[in-house]
Design brief:
Number of strands: 13
Oligomer: single chain
CATH superfamily of the largest domain: Type I PLP-dependent aspartate aminotransferase-like (Major domain)
Largest sheet: 7 strands, mixed
Distance between the termini: 29 Å
Number of domains: 2
Helix content: 25-40%
Number of helices: 11
Length: 358
């Protein structure tokens, strides 16, 4: 697979390709360790989606799904907006918050999912970056966020570092006049979701973005939502295209918010935690030390000669996520999705051969 073209910033320095995502790493015949999405939706969810096909002649109505999501997080329904995946939520926020008026200093904490910065830039915002350091384990120090930042975007747990920031650390970023956007797309991969802010009602300026893509295997359906003060939700709704959320996406949002589904997601999160520790231990056994503690369904690994190693993995049938497209990282970092122990053993054995390790 060819590398994306080098992008050049306003100062002439090379810029990472923020539009690159893990799905571009995957090709037929490769074991997919690049995309952090469940391989397929569970049978009960597929059955509900199939049953809803007969309703597709009518325009979608997200009211019931919105109410279900609101109940799931203990929030009023007017503080929830269903979106076509988490990515649409970032676009709506970038459009609803006017550059130079509502937002004068937008700050994105990197390395993290790049779509929030892309959406902000496309809407005319000048985006500033705060780069977290590998020497600090990519942990956030709230004191590093400048007081003038009136829009701050942070992932938790963060893609691609897999770092889970404590809720108290994230809450420390809240202040009058600031909008804090927390991307919790992978929070349901954390057993019990102890650091989630989604249920923190009555907090001015706090926006939480969630996705149903990862745990439920619904990347193609585009299902997600944002939770925010009612006034900001109304502003986002005014810039959202009509019928943006399909009937099937609304069915999925409602179904995945029910207690039985939440219990299933939590069991899956426990399984992911065990499989992730297995992968980290195997990597450590060949001298590759993933960023720890990790909390997502993926790990970030520093690898010598990363470009060569990544291509060698591809030549041997494994697709992993390049990380030089994330601000603050470079070619010698790879993101590896957590899979079953047998798959992890296979890719680690391949890495050991590539690196000529015992």
């Amino acid at each position: 697979m060819a590398d994306p073209a080098t992008h050049v910033g306003p100062d002439g320095a090379p810029e990472p390709d923020l539009s690159h995502h893990g799905d571009r790493e995957v090709e037929p015949g490769l074991v997919d360790l690049a995309v952090n999405v469940r391989a397929s939706a569970p049978g009960w969810l597929r059955d509900q989606l199939v049953a809803a096909v007969d309703d597709l002649a009518a325009y979608p109505d997200p009211a019931q799904a919105t109410a279900a999501v609101a109940r799931r997080h203990g929030r009023p329904a007017d503080e929830v907006l269903l979106t076509a995946g988490g990515a649409e939520a970032f676009t709506l926020l970038a459009r609803a918050l006017r550059p130079g008026t509502d937002v004068r200093h937008a700050l994105v904490v990197h390395p993290q999912f790049t779509e929030p910065e892309v959406a902000l830039a496309a809407a005319g915002h000048r985006v500033h970056r705060l780069l977290l350091e590998p020497a600090d384990g990519f942990r956030l120090d709230p004191e590093r966020v400048p007081g003038r930042a009136d829009l701050v975007v942070l992932g938790n747990p963060t893609n691609p570092t897999s770092v889970l920031h404590p809720a108290d650390t994230v809450r420390a970023l809240l202040r009058p006049g600031r909008t804090l956007v927390v991307d919790e797309a992978f929070m349901d991969a954390v057993p019990g979701e102890p650091e989630s802010l989604a249920g923190l009602a009555g907090t001015p300026g706090l926006v939480v973005v969630r996705s149903l893509t990862k745990t439920w295997g619904l990347a193609g359906l585009r299902a997600g939502y944002l939770i925010a003060p009612a006034g900001l939700v109304r502003r986002c709704r005014t810039v959202q295209p009509p019928w943006s959320v399909s009937t099937l996406a609304a069915v999925a949002a409602a179904a995945c918010s029910e207690p039985a589904a939440l219990a299933e997601a939590d069991r899956a999160a426990v399984e992911v935690r065990s499989a992730r520790e297995h992968l980290i231990e195997r990597l450590s056994g060949i001298g590759l030390h993933a960023v720890r503690p990790a909390a997502g369904p993926f790990v970030l690994v520093p690898v010598p000669n990363g470009l060569v190693v990544r291509q060698a993995l591809r030549d041997n049938g494994f697709a992993v996520r390049r990380c030089d497209t994330f601000p603050g990282l470079g070619p010698d970092w790879l993101r590896v999705a957590v899979r079953d122990p047998q798959t992890s053993d296979a890719v680690v054995a391949c890495l050991a051969t590539i690196l000529e390790l015992p």
